[in-house]
Amino acid sequence: MKSKTDEELMALIVEDHRPALEELYDRYVKLVYSFSFKMAKGDSEKAKEMVQQVFLRLWTTKQTYSSTQGKFVNWLLTITRNIAIDLIRKEQKQQGMVQLEANEWGQMQDLQTEDVLQQVSSNLLKQQIQAAKQQLSEPQLRLINLLYWEGYSLSEIAEMEQKPLGTIKSRLHQTLKKLRNYFRKETGGFQHGK
Length: 194
Hints:
Blueprint: H1 6-14, H2 18-39, H3 44-60, H4 72-108, H5 113-133, H6 138-149, H7 154-161, H8 165-187
Helix pairs in contact: 1-2, 2-3, 2-4, 3-4, 6-8, 7-8
């Protein structure tokens, strides 16, 4: 196994050849762990979970690596980064929901009337944003999250999604257009007095 290239090992993994996965694991576990450790901001348990997810993805995927896609290590780190982002986003979403519930009950008791109106307005806006997000497809939603909440550039997103930059730019244009149209319809065109 040691004499085989990464590409040959991936071809064997697609055929459920376990020693090929073990060889790739031996070659790259330290790199994947250190990358995951950085993404997890020093949380070793979270980093271990990411590593496990990466090698599980390699084992269960039926999409094989080809050297025409660039270096294997870059391909592997892109998978690692995607998994890390998914896990972090999932965790943040769960924390956000818990905090939102705690805040709504804790704060509502001692608010003045003006503060209540502000809170209601804020909640209404949150609901409108949630409704607008439901208009988007999964790739559009992922693009918005990566670009505006995670802070990635369009070229980084293109690399992560393994799509041409032009495709990502076009997807962004369509996404923003869809959101703009949705809010125009919901708010009567953002005009006062309507």
